[in-house]
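Example S7 (structure tokens).
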């Protein structure tokens, strides 16, 4: 699934680094938690290397450094620390 093909209100399942499944929802070009796990600092990265933040962050997608994991045809989700999350703004 390509992240650009998501439709409004579409549930987005992802697997975290600790193998726990969570569910987010695609809303107005962002993802938002539909379970009580919004504290997790997540960045959704697709083949265009854009990141998609939770709607609570209220930011537009922008270019980020290449991920350490290979980006394939499917959107991938990379769990990162709060410090690394803030560095994406620079």
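Recovered sequence:
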């Amino acid at each position: 699934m390509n992240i650009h093909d998501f439709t409004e209100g579409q549930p987005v399942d992802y697997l975290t680094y600790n193998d726990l499944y969570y569910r987010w929802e695609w809303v107005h070009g962002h993802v938002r938690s539909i379970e009580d796990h919004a504290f997790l600092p997540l960045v959704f990265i697709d083949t265009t290397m854009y990141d998609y933040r939770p709607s609570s962050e209220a930011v537009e997608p922008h270019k980020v450094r290449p991920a350490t994991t290979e980006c394939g045809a499917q959107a991938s989700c990379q769990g990162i620390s709060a410090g690394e999350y803030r560095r994406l703004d620079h």
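Notes on this example. The chain has one domain: 3-87.
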